[in-house]
Amino acid sequence: MPDLRRDPVMGRWVIISTDRAGRPRDFIHHEPVRPASTGLCPFCPGQERLTPKETLAYRPQPSEQNLPGWTVRAVPNKFPALQIEGDLGREGVGLYDRMNGVGAHEVIIETPDHKDTLADMQPKHIEDVLWAFRDRMVDLRKDLRFRYILVFKNHGQAAGATLEHTHSQLIALPVVPTSVMAEIEGCRAHFQQKERCIYCDIIRQELEDNARLVTDNPEFLCVTPFAPRFPFEMWILPKRHAAYFEESQKTQFDLLARILSEALRRMNQVLARPAYNFILHTSPLHEKTGDFYHWHIEIIPKLTQVAGFEWGTGFYINPITPEESAKFLREAEI
Amino acid sequence: MPDLRRDPVMGRWVIISTDRAGRPRDFIHHEPVRPASTGLCPFCPGQERLTPKETLAYRPQPSEQNLPGWTVRAVPNKFPALQIEGDLGREGVGLYDRMNGVGAHEVIIETPDHKDTLADMQPKHIEDVLWAFRDRMVDLRKDLRFRYILVFKNHGQAAGATLEHTHSQLIALPVVPTSVMAEIEGCRAHFQQKERCIYCDIIRQELEDNARLVTDNPEFLCVTPFAPRFPFEMWILPKRHAAYFEESQKTQFDLLARILSEALRRMNQVLARPAYNFILHTSPLHEKTGDFYHWHIEIIPKLTQVAGFEWGTGFYINPITPEESAKFLREAEI
C-alpha cells in the first residue's frame, strides 16, 4: 500500500509509492525508457490485454469491452501511484501525519492512433477527450474518500511522459494538494474583500488590455498570465464563472476543444513542437467554492532547464515577458 | 531593468528578466551549452577579466584583486536575473502588482581547480565556501531593500548548471519567496500552539527514532525527511536552535563543512555521482523569526524525470521511502 505523508512544516502531502523502484541503481540511469515506435504499445488497439480493464471507452459502433473499436479509452494506470482499495487509515507518527495511499490513478488514451498528438487531432476528437475527463471525474467524485481530482498531461519525454502514445492522466486524491489549496485561499481572500471572483476580474482586465491575449471565442479565452513562471506559459479560462470543470455546459465542450487545439497549434508553430505539461485546475470536491473559485487550464511548454531550486523556493526566473510571448503566439500562422 | 511581478492569486513573485533570451528560437534547443573542459572557463584563475569585478576573494597570500591567488571568489553574475542599482518602483497595474527587478545575483566560485567538485574538496576548503556564503550575506543584508537572500547550488547539467566549474549562487531579493513564506508560517503556527520550534521537535524525534538518520556530529544532523518530495532528498540541520545561518558560531562552520562533505560523498557513493541541487533555507532578513524558525540545508539529487505537473500542484510522488534511502546512505562505504 502506498503511503501518504504530510510535511509538518509545509503541510505538503507526498505519496511514497514504492511499487515502481526501490534500489539506488533504479535511479542511476535517468532517462525513462521509451518503447519502440513500432511493436508492442500497450495503448494501441489490439493490445488492450496489456492494460488493466477499461473504466471508460467511447465506441462509435457497438463493440466489446477491452477490444478494439474505441476512440477514447480510460484504464487504471498499470503502475499506480495510489491504490483504489482500502480505507484511509489516518494516523499520527509522533510529530508526523500519515495515511494510506488510497486513490485512483488512471490513464486516458486519447486516440487509437499511435502517431497522433493532441494538437493534431480534429477539435471534435479533442472534445471527446474532454468528455472522458468529465465522465471519469463525475464517476470518481461519488467516492467520498476523494477530495481532489487532478487531470494532467505530460507530452514528450522532457515533460515526464514515459510512453509515446498520446495520453492524459487522472489522479483522485484523499487530500487537496498544497498549491491547489493556496490557489483556493487566494481566491477566497479576494472574494472576502471584494465579493468578486478574482479570475473574473483577471478576465475582464485581460480582455480590455489585450496585451496578453492569445485568442478567444464566445466561451473561452487563452492568455499568457501576468506573472508567468515559465516562458510561453498559457492559461485557458472560461469566460463564464464556474468552479467545477465537470459541471460545464454541454455546449462549452466544443468551444473548449477548439481553443485548446488552437493554443497547442500556436505553441507548436512558435516553439517547434515542444514537450509540454497541461494541468486542469478545478475545485476540490465537496467544497463550497462556487462563488469564488474559477476552473482553468494551465499549459506549460517544457523549454528551459529547470533549476531545481525553484522547487525548493517557489521562486521563478522567466527570460521572456508574457506580452512578448503572447505576441508571438497571436501572430503565429496556423 | 528586470521586472518583478506578483501572481494575484498565489501571491507568488516572478522575475521577468529578458537580458538573456527573447526570441522563440532561443528556447527551441533545450540543452544548455557546456564549455569545453579545457579552454576559456571564466571561473578559472587567469581568466578573472571574463567575470565582473569580485565582491569577495579569500587570498591566503596577499595578491591583487581580480587576479589569481584566490581560493574562493565571489563575483556578480554576468547575466544577472536582478539588477543591483535602482529603487523598487512598486506599482499596481490594474489588478496586478509589479516592482523593479532590484536585487543582487552573485556566483561563488568554490575553488580555482576546474576539475574539483564540492564533494571531493577537503572539509577545510568547504568551510571557506560556507564562510563566503556568510560573508556575502552579512554584506548584502545591510541593503535595506532586500528581504531575502537565497543561497543555492546547481551541480551538473541535469540540475540546471550551465558552467562546469564548481560554483554556488546567491540571489538577494526584495520579496520573500512564497515557499519560504509558507515554511515560516508553518513554523509560526507550531510555535503559537506549543511554544516550541517545530524543527527542534523534528530533530528530537529523528534522533530518538533513528530510522531516517544518515549521520550526525555534535552540532549537526543529516536526515532524510519524513515526507520527502524526491528520492534520496537529505536535510542538514543544526542541533542548536538558530533562525539565521549567517549568525552561526565560528566553531560550527567546521562541523557543518564536515557533515556536508560526508552527506555529498554518501550520496555520490550510493547514486554514482548524480546531479543535485542544494538550497540553504534561512530566515528572511529583518524579521523576528528567532523563536520559531530554524535554518537548514536541503540537498536534492536530480534522479527522476520531473513530471511538470508537480510545479503546478505542489504534489509529489516519490518511489522510495526515506527510511530505505537513509539506510542506503548510512551504509555506504566512504
Could you explain how this protein is built, in words?
Two copies of one chain form a homodimer. The model of chain A is unreliable at 29-36 (pLDDT under 50). The first copy, chain A, has two domains: 3-13 and 37-178, HIT family, subunit A (2-Layer Sandwich), CATH 3.30.428.10; 194-301 and 309-331, HIT family, subunit A (2-Layer Sandwich). Chain A contains seven helices and 15 strands. In chain A, strands 3-4-7-9-8-13-14-12-11-10 form a ten-stranded antiparallel sheet, sandwiched between helices. In chain A, strands 2-1-6-5 form a four-stranded antiparallel sheet, with no helix packed on it. The radius of gyration of chain A is 20 Å and the shape is globular. In chain A, 26% of the residues lie in helices and 22% in strands. With 334 residues, chain A is an alpha+beta fold. The interface between A and B is large, with 97 and 97 residues. Strand 2 (13-16) of chain A pairs parallel with strand 15 (316-318) of chain B.
Largest interface, per-chain counts? A-B, 97 and 97 residues
Main sheet overview of chain A = 10 strands, antiparallel
How many distinct beta strands of chain A?
15
In terms of quaternary structure, the protein is: homodimer
- The low-confidence parts of chain A are 29-36
Gist?
Two copies of one chain form a homodimer. Chain A has helices spanning about 25-30, 125-140, 180-195, 200-210, 250-270, 310-315, 320-330, and strands at about 5, 15, 55-60, 70-75, 90-95, 95-100, 105-110, 150-155, 165-175, 215, 220-225, 235-240, 275-280, 295-300, 315-320. Chain A is of the alpha+beta class and about 325 residues long.
